[in-house]
């Protein structure tokens, strides 16, 4: 794909002032927000699933949360986890700018691997991960427990600045993401797809398991 075609696809769904404001807040605090193409893909998935309950790992300043909430049903609740309470404060400002009711967002400050085990099994339509890349494998394990059958797990930065596809790149984060990509592809009960949007968006549907006779 040529750079011009990639750029055209990436900006195909235009961002409004609320999203641009959230991006500006993210930049101020050094939080790297999801790309517009990957964000649009998240909104699409949330809409297709008519998502009512979503977990987000990595709140940032609310860019990905806005995309998810805009795709979810009107009474859907986003549970978003981040170690940075200040980032979550900025995200709440972004959600307020978009007219999102406070009861539709549950912000939890803390490490994802401390918080996720406290969430309800089989309750969530989507688990979206954009946290510590070295913990992506552990996030997958938690997502398999948290998702309902037919739910979707999603990982941002699945191509990690073109490093994942280059076997000579062996830093901890690249190795962890590369391992995750292979694990998702090899896991029975997952239907995966790796989209070349943004910095790469890995999606996998948790298959329905037939009931025993």
From TrEMBL:
Gene3D superfamilies listed in its UniProt record: Vaccinia Virus protein VP39
Superkingdom of origin organism: Bacteria
Residues that span the membrane, as ranges: none
GO molecular function, one term: S-adenosylmethionine-dependent methyltransferase activity
BP GO annotations: methylation
Entry keyword annotation includes Transferase: yes
Keyword terms of this UniProt record: Methyltransferase, S-adenosyl-L-methionine, Transferase
Pfam family, one: Methyltransf_3
Protein name listed in UniProt: O-methyltransferase
UniProt source species: Nocardioides humilatus
């Amino acid at each position: 794909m040529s750079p011009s075609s990639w750029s055209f696809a990436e900006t195909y769904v235009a961002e409004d002032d609320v999203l641009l404001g959230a991006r500006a807040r993210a930049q101020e605090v050094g939080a790297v927000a999801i790309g517009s193409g990957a964000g649009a893909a998240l909104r699409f998935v949330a809409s297709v699933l008519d998502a009512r309950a979503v977990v987000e790992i990595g709140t940032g300043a609310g860019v990905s949360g806005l995309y998810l909430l805009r795709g979810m049903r009107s009474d859907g609740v986003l549970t978003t986890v981040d170690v940075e309470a200040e980032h979550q404060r900025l995200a709440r400002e972004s959600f307020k700018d978009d007219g999102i009711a406070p009861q539709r967002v549950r912000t939890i400050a803390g490490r994802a691997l401390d918080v996720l085990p406290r969430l309800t099994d089989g309750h969530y339509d989507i688990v979206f991960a954009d946290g510590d890349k070295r913990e992506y494998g552990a996030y997958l394990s938690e997502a398999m427990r948290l998702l309902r059958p037919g739910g979707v797990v999603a990982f941002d930065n699945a191509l990690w600045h073109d490093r994942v596809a280059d076997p000579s790149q062996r830093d901890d984060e690249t190795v962890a993401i590369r391992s995750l990509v292979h694990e998702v592809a090899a896991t029975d009960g997952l239907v995966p797809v790796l989209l070349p949007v943004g910095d790469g968006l890995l999606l996998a549907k948790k298959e329905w398991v037939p009931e025993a006779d």
